[in-house]
Model the fold of this input.
Amino acid sequence: MKIFIGTSAFCAILDRDDKNHQKSGSVWKDAIEKKHKLMTSSYILGETAALLLSRIGMEAAGIRIGI
Done:
């Protein structure tokens, strides 16, 4: 099965304060164990990065700027 991963799913698994964080862990684990094909887009990745920056900050989001 192919599953399209959106911003909300990424944020739920990456942000411990997200209301769906705990549930998302079991959903991700199940999808991986069943070898579902997980897909997303570059637009979703960009949106996820922006949202995580505003929610949890650059360091917590794992974003580094080489300045």
